């Protein structure tokens, strides 16, 4: 009943924008009165009752379908039609039915998915007890219970959990494609409810919060409970699409349900995408209608003149029907010619286009070179109507995490005491490339080693096991200086919960080299050092933030020694070292430069021995600074700076943010194809910049890389202007914008920002705050202008909405075809905004795949999708359209010339059966063979010469000019094919002296000449012949003559006298030499100019396709491109391995860690003192100070 009321209120309130959401826990009647959506989702487009009208409406929006419906109505009028009504009705119903069945099948699958999700079960607190309910019946304000590994039902406010400090761990792969677990924390006030059903049932807190929106990273609201008001933020929300991990149970309050959840808000509505060729076709069809009307008008006018001058002479033996005079006859003639000449746009054109697209989609699905065996994931064309658009991509917008990278960090190399480890060398001192077959270090001596960890340099293990003090201190630092939390379900089976994969990789490396981080309490850290347990007293954590770019811990060893361990960005650490480290610093700096040259993320490690008396004094001063009311942050920073100086350098680490296989090579290939790639990521600037260098998008040889990071609109404008002026000093201050008209009736105003040439290559990196200003109306053209001058654009810290806005900006002002690729729900809006959306499947997140047009498992398959399948699909479609219009215009225009010899009476020049079979039997299969199998060069040549892709971007193969050339070619061919047979048959006799200059013989000769010429043109247009092509062509010719001789036989005439009047014509005409000579002469005159023109064009202005084809004929087939790793030697370090946020230091030292007796592991966040809760700056705090300042 509740869902019905919710739906009714939803409809009643439709149109009213929700400004604020207000709800009460456990009060359905109050919440239903606001008309909030329940938790049922619907991604389907139709219902049983709406399918037929809505589907027909969508199909008749296509101009050609509406045109054929109009023709059908005309054919129902006997005074006009010279053809039976079913000649149009049958193919029209067939086309509509096929499209309807396809749409129905797609929608049935959506309904099945919806039902599967809506019928999932969850425990809901109702009437004081937990009841197992379907997801679709969950309402806003309900309290639900989730258990480990369950999907989050709706957008929930976390109330309590089984974990210490009311924490939960969630996997957000469906939302952002990231695999590392996120931590959420409930309020202390609600956490006290725990799993007490009575207390939860009595909970009546009231929530006021923002209305439904698509911002995945933000939430604002308040909870009123017992007259106290608590602030709510995103860290207390569990979003639909997440999965609960490593948490026994938790309770949550439903804030948003079903279509209001952030997951569904990001999914948006299904967008009907149409290719640029579809849009062009609509315009061309409109032009053809005009051309058709023009021809029919000429025929009608000439018919009026003919009826007035000549027609009256025939009325003696051919009297007119009653009430019809010359003027009415002319009017009827107009509509008769509309029917006769309608073959300029045959319905088979659209059927063939759909078949071609379907075939190209199957080729993508069947391509074994795009199959990923590791996950058993093939490439999939989820949309069958966009294949040729893949051959015209100009801009690619890519997510980073999970798309370019695997979101896996690996400990790759390190430098310890001036010696580098991680590389392998042969006997001659040459570095050896490490592959999967390279022997790995054996860690079997360490019972607690991670079996998944891989390292290849045996010398490092030998140094550590030999007791080298510097090496052991290096890994001791890595095992102590972090905020990682351990979990040990079984003895020896350690699992680290790290807030960033960087820290997890470093702690795991220390674990494998004999320094195993085993457990922690707020006061201690337990480490197994080379098999011996050592407990360190944790005195302080100087936490990381984006300004400090480092973190430190102060520990007391078992012997009472005080040590500060510090790790951070190398540029920060190196300037805080003791002067005695200068020599070591130079060696380490060289190693850091080498690591950066390999695209690795680096950290420098240092330590400092502390004096007991100094530490006591420093602690007292820190306590005073931490409670200061004024300039607290500045005083704390001074203390941090004071203690973190004169440190001793230990070495450096190099962590690889593992790219997906083949990413740099793919980007290099796409760049050669003149495709621009923009990276839109939610990661911070340093991480995105580092990946840019790793992917070969940012290169040292670039003249400059510009950073736009201002926090004001004026600042952003100034930075964009400075960048543009440096790239192109002579450019005009205002962008060059050309305005044109487009669309179906040229009513759509189109603005295009012209490209500007610059000398050299540049890069642009802009963060989310600056991008928000740059996307405003007065700055967006400046942003677009500056960005398009750059070879590489990286946008960091962007929201899903900003991703879509960037795509729409390029679509609107560049008039270029765009492609967006991603793997998470935060990429869905971008994927739907672009012309083509690609989802990375086989990864953890599938939300992007469900909204995509194409999907595959690895980014590297994108080059094959575009450079091979996309280019071939575009070429095939263009050749198909050019050839189809040629053969049909030639076919139709012969009616036009014949009108001058038949009194403009709308008589057809061909046999009626030839008209019926021309597009459906005689020419259907050969043109499909051309359109499905055509290749200008094979896939290896296509990948070896990415420049072959550029003509598609410029729309060179089929456009309005190409269409006009096609029409002119058809006019010439139709003139030849009509007048040559007419002249040769005029006053001609057979060998036996009998007359063959009759209508039936002429019709047979004309249609045979036509068929031979269109097949000859097909031979000229085909570059790639297969057995199927050959079969289709020769079989079609054989079928034509077989049908002709059968239908023109005496037997058929005797059986169906009125249907087959051409008795004996084929037998009497085709045995004459002059008929075959006429066929040969007509074909030669039609084909020879085409051959001559193409020969001259290739000699004078060869295209890139001509050159590569000539090269392919002379040279052997190129070998497949080897799988190689591109090593980019750069001198700057673009990032450092530290991707978590500030705020974790105080949590690992919280006295509240051990509140719950059934704790399974230690957790990260103190719900009371965490700056994430209070939205305050993070400050250092010692254990003793914490207990003193603890507030009740």
**Major sheet: order of its strands?**
14-37-36-35-15-29-34-33-30
Supply the helix-strand structural class.
alpha+beta
Which oligomeric form is depicted? Answer: single chain
Mean pLDDT: 83
CA radius of gyration: 38 Å
Output the keywords.
1192 residues, nine-stranded mixed beta sheet, nine-stranded antiparallel beta sheet, elongated, disordered C terminus, ATP hydrolysis activity, lipid transport, metal-binding, transport
Task: Please provide a brief summary of the model.
This protein is α+β, with helices and mostly antiparallel strands and 1192 residues long.
Topology overview:
Elements: H1 2-12, E1 21-24, H2 28-32, H3 51-60, H4 63-75, H5 86-118, E2 121-126, E3 129-134, E4 143-147, E5 155-161, E6 167-171, H6 173-176, E7 182-185, H7 188-191, H8 197-202, E8 206-209, E9 221-225, E10 228-232, E11 237-238, E12 243-245, E13 249-256, H9 262-267, H10 276-309, H11 326-340, H12 348-366, E14 380-381, E15 393-398, E16 405-416, E17 419-421, E18 424-425, E19 431-432, H13 458-465, H14 469-480, E20 485-490, E21 493-497, H15 501-512, E22 515-520, E23 524-529, E24 532-542, E25 550-556, E26 562-568, H16 570-574, H17 582-597, E27 601-610, H18 612-626, H19 632-643, E28 648-659, H20 663-672, E29 676-680, H21 685-694, E30 704-708, H22 713-727, E31 737-742, E32 748-753, E33 762-767, H23 768-774, H24 780-789, E34 792-796, H25 800-814, E35 817-822, H26 828-833, E36 836-840, H27 847-850, E37 854-856, H28 861-899, H29 912-922, H30 924-933, H31 939-944, H32 950-953, H33 960-985, H34 999-1021, H35 1027-1047, H36 1050-1055, H37 1065-1069, H38 1073-1100, H39 1104-1114, H40 1145-1148, H41 1171-1174, H42 1183-1189
């Amino acid at each position: 009943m509740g869902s019905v009321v919710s739906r009714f209120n939803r409809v009643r309130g439709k149109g009213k924008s929700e400004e604020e959401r207000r709800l009460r826990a456990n009060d359905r009647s109050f919440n239903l009165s606001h008309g909030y959506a329940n938790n049922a989702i619907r991604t389907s487009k139709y219902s049983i009752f709406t399918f037929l009208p809505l589907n027909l409406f969508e199909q008749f929006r296509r101009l050609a379908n509406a045109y054929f419906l109009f023709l059908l109505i005309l054919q129902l009028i006997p005074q006009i039609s010279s053809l039976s009504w079913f000649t149009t009705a049958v193919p029209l119903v067939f086309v509509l039915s096929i499209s309807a069945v396809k749409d129905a099948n797609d929608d049935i699958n959506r309904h099945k998915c919806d039902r599967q999700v809506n019928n999932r079960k969850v425990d809901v607190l109702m009437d004081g007890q937990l009841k197992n309910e379907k997801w679709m019946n969950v309402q806003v304000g309900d309290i639900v219970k989730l258990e480990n590994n369950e999907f989050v039902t709706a957008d929930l406010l976390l109330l309590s959990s089984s974990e210490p400090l009311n924490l939960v761990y969630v996997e957000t792969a469906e939302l952002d494609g990231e695999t590392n677990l996120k931590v959420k924390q409930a309020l202390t006030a609600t956490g006290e409810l725990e799993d007490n059903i009575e207390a939860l049932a009595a909970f009546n807190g009231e929530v006021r919060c923002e209305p439904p929106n698509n911002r995945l990273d933000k939430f604002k609201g308040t909870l009123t409970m017992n007259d106290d008001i608590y602030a709510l933020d995103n860290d207390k929300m569990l979003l639909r699409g997440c999965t609960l991990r490593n948490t026994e149970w938790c309770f949550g309050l439903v804030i948003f349900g079903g279509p209001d959840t952030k997951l569904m808000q990001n999914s948006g509505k299904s967008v009907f995408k149409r290719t640029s060729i579809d849009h062009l076709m609509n315009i061309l069809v409109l032009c053809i209608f005009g051309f058709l009307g023009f021809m029919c008008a000429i025929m009608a006018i000439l018919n009026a003149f003919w009826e007035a001058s000549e027609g009256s002479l025939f009325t003696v033996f051919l009297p007119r029907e009653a009430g019809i005079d010359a003027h009415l006859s002319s009017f009827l003639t107009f509509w008769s010619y509309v029917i006769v000449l309608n073959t300029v746009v045959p319905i088979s054109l659209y059927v063939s286009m759909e078949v071609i697209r379907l075939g190209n989609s199957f080729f993508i699905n069947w391509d074994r070179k795009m199959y990923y065996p590791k996950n058993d994931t093939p490439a999939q064309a989820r949309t069958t109507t966009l294949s040729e658009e893949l051959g015209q991509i100009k801009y690619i917008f890519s997510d980073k995490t999970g798309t370019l990278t695997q979101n896996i960090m690996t400990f790759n190399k390190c430098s310890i005491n001036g010696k580098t480890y991680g590389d392998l060398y042969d006997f001659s001192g040459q570095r050896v490339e490490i592959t999967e077959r390279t022997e790995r270090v054996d860690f079997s001596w360490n019972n607690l080693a991670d079996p998944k960890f891989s390292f290849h340099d045996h010398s490092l293990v030998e140094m550590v096991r030999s007791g080298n003090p510097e090496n052991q201190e290096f890994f001791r630092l890595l095992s102590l200086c972090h905020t990682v939390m351990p979990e040990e379900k079984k003895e020896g089976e350690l699992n680290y919960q790290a807030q960033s994969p960087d820290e997890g990789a470093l702690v795991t490396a220390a674990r494998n080299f004999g320094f195993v981080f085993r457990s922690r309490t707020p006061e201690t850290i337990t480490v197994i050092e080379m098999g011996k347990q050592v407990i360190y007293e944790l005195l302080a954590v100087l936490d990381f933030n984006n300004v400090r770019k480092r973190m430190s811990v102060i520990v007391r060893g078992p012997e009472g020694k005080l040590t500060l361990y510090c790790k951070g960005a190398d540029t920060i650490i190196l300037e805080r070292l003791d002067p005695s480290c200068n020599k070591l610093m130079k060696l380490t700096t060289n190693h850091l430069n080498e690591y950066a040259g390999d695209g690795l993320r680096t950290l420098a490690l240092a330590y400092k021995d502390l004096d007991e008396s100094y530490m006591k004094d420093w602690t007292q001063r820190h306590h005073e600074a931490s409670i200061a009311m004024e300039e607290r942050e500045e005083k704390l920073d001074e203390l941090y700076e004071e203690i973190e100086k004169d440190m001793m350098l230990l070495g450096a680490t190099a962590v690889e943010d593992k790219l997906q296989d083949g990413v740099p090579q793919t980007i290099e290939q796409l760049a050669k194809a003149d495709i621009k790639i923009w990276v839109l990521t939610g990661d911070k600037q340093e991480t995105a910049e580092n990946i840019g260098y790793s992917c070969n998008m940012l290169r040292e040889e670039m003249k400059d890389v510009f950073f736009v990071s201002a926090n004001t609109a004026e600042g952003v404008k100034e930075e964009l202007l400075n960048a543009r002026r440096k790239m192109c000093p002579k450019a005009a201050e205002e962008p060059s914008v050309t305005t044109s008209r487009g669309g179906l009736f040229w009513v759509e105003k189109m603005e295009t920002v012209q490209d500007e040439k610059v000398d050299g290559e540049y890069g642009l990196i802009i963060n989310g705050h600056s991008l928000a200003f740059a996307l405003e109306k007065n700055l967006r053209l400046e942003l677009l202008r500056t960005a398009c001058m750059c070879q590489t654009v990286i946008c960091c810290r962007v929201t899903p909405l900003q991703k879509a806005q960037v795509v729409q900006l390029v679509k609107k002002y560049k008039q270029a075809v765009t492609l967006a690729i991603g793997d998470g729900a935060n990429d869905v809006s971008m994927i739907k905004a672009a012309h083509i959306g690609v989802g990375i499947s086989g990864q953890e997140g599938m939300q992007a795949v469900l909204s995509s047009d194409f999907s595959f498992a690895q980014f590297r398959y994108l080059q094959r999708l575009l450079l091979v399948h996309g280019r071939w699909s575009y070429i095939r479609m263009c050749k198909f359209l050019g050839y189809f219009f040629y053969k049909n215009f030639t076919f139709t225009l012969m009616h036009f010339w014949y009108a001058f010899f038949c009194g403009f009476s709308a008589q057809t020049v061909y046999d009626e059966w030839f008209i019926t079979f021309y597009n459906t039997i005689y020419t259907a299969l050969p043109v499909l063979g051309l359109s499905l199998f055509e290749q200008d060069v094979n896939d290896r040549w296509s990948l070896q010469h990415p420049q072959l892709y550029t003509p598609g971007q410029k729309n060179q193969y089929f456009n309005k000019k190409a269409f006009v050339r096609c029409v002119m070619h058809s006019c010439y061919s139709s003139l030849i094919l009509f007048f040559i047979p007419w002249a040769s048959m005029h006053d001609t006799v057979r060998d036996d002296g009998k007359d063959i200059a009759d209508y039936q013989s002429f019709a047979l000769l004309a249609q045979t000449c036509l068929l031979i010429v269109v097949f000859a043109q097909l031979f000229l247009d085909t570059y790639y012949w297969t057995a199927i092509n050959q079969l289709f062509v020769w079989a079609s010719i054989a079928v034509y003559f077989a049908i002709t001789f059968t239908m023109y036989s005496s037997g058929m005439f005797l059986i169906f006298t009125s249907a087959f009047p051409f008795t004996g014509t084929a037998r009497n005409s085709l045995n004459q030499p002059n008929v075959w000579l006429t066929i040969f002469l007509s074909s030669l005159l039609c084909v020879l100019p085409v051959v001559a023109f193409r020969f001259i064009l290739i000699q004078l202005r060869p295209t890139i396709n001509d050159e590569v084809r000539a090269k392919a004929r002379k040279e052997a087939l190129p070998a497949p491109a080897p799988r190689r790793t591109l090593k980019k030697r750069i001198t700057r370090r673009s990032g450092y391995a530290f991707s978590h946020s500030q705020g974790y230091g105080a949590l690992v030292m919280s006295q509240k860690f051990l509140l719950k007796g059934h704790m399974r592991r230690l957790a990260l966040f103190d719900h009371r003192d965490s700056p994430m809760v209070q939205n305050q700056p993070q400050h250092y705090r010692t254990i003793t100070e914490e207990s003193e300042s603890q507030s009740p």
